[in-house]
Amino acid sequence: MPLFLPPSRAKPPPPPMRTDDRLAVLVGLAVWAVLLLVAVAVPEVRGTGQGRWLGSCVAGVVLGLLGLAFVHRRDHRDRRGR
């Protein structure tokens, strides 16, 4: 099996696969939101002085919202470009 094929023998790349990225972002966002609610509701998490639990959950929710906006803009741009 040769490592290099001349352009005349190379196969064309496959077309890009369409996926529902919005669903993946929404699931991740929902998980972080539930974890944030648990971290706020459980006094042991707040009482241990470990604010990193709350900070991590807030960061997950914020990044999920940014990801959702990114996916929405990308999908809108792709639809408009066609």
Question: What does the model show?
Answer:
The protein is mainly alpha-helical and 82 residues long. It has a domain at 51-76. Helices cover 68% and strands 0% of the residues. It is elongated.
Question: Can you describe this structure in just a few lines?
Answer:
It holds the Pfam family DUF2530. With 82 residues, this protein is mainly α.
Number of DSSP helical runs: 3
Mean pLDDT: 86
What are the secondary-structure elements, in order, as H or E? HHH
SSE-based structural type: mainly alpha
What multimeric state do the chains show? Answer: single chain
The gyration radius over C-alpha positions equals 21 Å
Instruction: Enumerate the spans where pLDDT stays under 50 for 5 or more consecutive residues.
Output: none
- Please give the number of β-strands: 0
User: What general outline do the C-alpha atoms trace?
Assistant: elongated
Whole-Å distance between the termini? 39 Å
The share of residues in helices is 55-70%
Major sheet details? none
Instruction: Bin the strand percentage.
Output: under 5%
Keywords: Membrane, Transmembrane, Transmembrane helix
Protein name: DUF2530 domain-containing protein
Pfam families: DUF2530
InterPro entries: DUF2530
Considering the chains and any ligands shown, give keywords for the structure:
82 residues, mainly alpha, 3 helices, 68% helix
List the helices and strands and how they pair.
Blueprint: H1 21-41, H2 43-47, H3 52-81
Helix pairs in contact: 1-3
